Amino acid sequence: MKNKIFKHISLILVVNLTSILGCFAQKLTTERLHVHLQKNIYMAGEAIHFKLYCINTETQKLTTNSKVAYVELIGENGFPVAQTDIILEHGMGVGGIVISPQLPTGNYAINAYSHWMKTSSENLTNVTSLFVFNNQNTSNDSNNNLKKLSGTFRDLNNNDLTLLKSNNDKEDVSIHTKIEDLNRILKISLTSNNPKINETYKFQLLSKEGKILEKEFQFSQKNTDFFLKLNDLKSTNYNLCVKNNKEQIIKTAVIHLAKSHRGLFIERPRITNSKRKKIRLNLHLEDLSHDADSLFLSASIKLKEPSNSSINIIDYLNLYSDFGADMLPYFEKFAQIKNKSWIVENGPETLWLRDSSSYKVNANRYAETEAYILEGTIKNRKTQKPFAKENVFLSKIGSYADINTFCTNDQGQFYFNLPLKKGLHDISIQVPHRNDLDLGIQLKNKYNTEGFAPMPWHQQQFKDEQLAFIKQLFDNQRIRDIYNQKSFYETKDTCLHRGQENFYGKAKFSIKTDDYIKLDSLEEYFHEFISTVKIKYKKKKPHMYVYSPDVARVFKQDPLILYDGLILSDASKILNKNSKMIDKIEVVPYEYYYGSSHLYGIISVTSKQKDCQLSELPKNTERYYLPLFTKSVEYLRTNENQQQRHHADFRTDLLWEPNIKLTRDKDFNLEFISSDVEGEYELTVEGISEKGEPIVIKQSILVE
Questions:
Q1: 275-296 residue pLDDT tens
Q2: Residue 558: Cβ-neighbour burial (10 angstroms; 0-12, 13-18, 19+)
Q3: Integer Cα distance of 64 and 113 in angstroms
Q4: Domains of the chain, start order
Q5: Are 244 and 357 contacting, i.e. CB atoms less than 8 angstroms apart?
Q6: Is 331 exposed, middle or buried (CB count within 10 Å of its CB: 0-12, 13-18, 19+)?
Q7: Please, are residues 635 and 46 in contact by the beta-carbon 8 Å criterion?
Q8: Which pTM value belongs to this model?
Q9: What is the pLDDT of residues 482-491, one digit of tens each?
């Protein structure tokens, strides 16, 4: 009866796991990560502090689908130069990346995504640009080097997880806009380098409300024009779309109108203060929202930069509320609009989209909802064929028999959950009892090998005020280095996580060796004290079997043998251990169904060190000290005691407060001390309510 119950439960678990992995795409909505950076211009060696907001693209609220975010610092060539993983709690996460002192001067980007975002579409990756200056990696004439840099974006080759490919690469269609008739008419010109004169195309103008205009047309020579009255354009963002006669999108673009139509943007009046003074700014929920019960915010105060390349959360959510995630992969280019008027000198501002009308995803989709999902592949080393439809185990090393089992799919892939704990996870991936095969086990890297990267600024885009600002930051940093003033410290969590509990619960038989008379060998302990384990020799090699009182016989099949949580197929590896090193022995003398595995008894031996010291690992076993969420960068505040020192204070970053929560019963005070650097500073507060309403606060602080 017990075996039937175990078998029934096992079947339910396997079916549920299969359905979960296969149906994420239908049950989970898409999500995007908004990144609030502390600032946009950095010196090499500094730390990039950021706050992540994970947003449900349908409800615009914070989502808890994914509990893990991946953040990368991307260089100009598109390859990551730094990577970190962040735990998301209640849809938010805080972290930092230290910029290497060896990074050259240039334009970089922060790419942020969850696994669910990445496998839904590569276009969901958040791209936030920033600038890094390194005087050591430029020539003596730093100004000339700076002028070679640019701030536009290019799309790089796609990574191996998501392949975006247009079916219509031969049709090169461009869209141009112009204002005519005394700013009353918008002219949209479509140009094709290879026009098919007799073929019918379709032009669509879309807004949040749906289709505003849809017309069929044929290219007259190379150009076709459409005329729209500006007074008829009431929405904030419009999508222009050109389709061929097969209803395939061959070109799409967006016209942006500047006004934010959703969210609360507050610009507070400027305040003036003197150097080295304590300043307090109050945040009250009643001043920011009448409907929300709580607000989640992050705040920064920095010397005002000559240009701001990051998008605020209001603009971010407005773009997605208009068209949804699938139609807006262009948001990283939104910051390139220099002024907020949608009618610029040469006509309305048009942001271009890549054609993502057809894409395929060759990686399995899943969201890391409650744990970190460890993914890997097993193949035969000789034939390179997948180890398909076979059991694989995750063994957590330690004082407990803490294992998980998974049946690989057709591609030899496996998935295991690891707890969201910071530190090193001592684990092994194993395929026991298959010594006839030489198997290769490879874990999958969750990070992209390439990303979306910025290109250098053009010389004419780099203004004198930008050069002067960077020079000021560099001079201030040199002074701070002389006085050894730090604004951050980097930590690394080396806490070692091992097995936490027995997967089988409490064992039927359990002994601690210290409770009995000392015997010369471990085999004697089994003979004298554990009658349910039988040791037999075949060709002078020991084998262990389990006697089951349920069926009153010894199982012919090998039991599951564990040493400090590691599965062993060779019983001699345990029996040859010095008995003085052994702490306890546990035995489960029953048939046991666990996941997709049928176990004929369980023998678990634990050493006193509990660290699974073996001269060599069993065959088809890989052991890892897997680092999860180990890196941390903490922002250092300047307190009043530091203020009393007699050395110079040349800070230009006065505050970074990423974890602000406002409720009707709890306000928040932003407290900081101004430095010796005179000038205009900027307070930026960003965040979102529990109802999905974005909020941005700006305030100028003049230090003189």
A1: 989 999 999 998 898 788 999 9
A2: middle
A3: 14
A4: 29-163+449-492 (2.60.40.1930), 173-260+320-361 (2.60.40), 264-305+634-703 (2.60.40.2950), 509-609 (2.170.130.10)
A5: no
A6: buried
A7: no
A8: 0.80
A9: 888 889 999 9
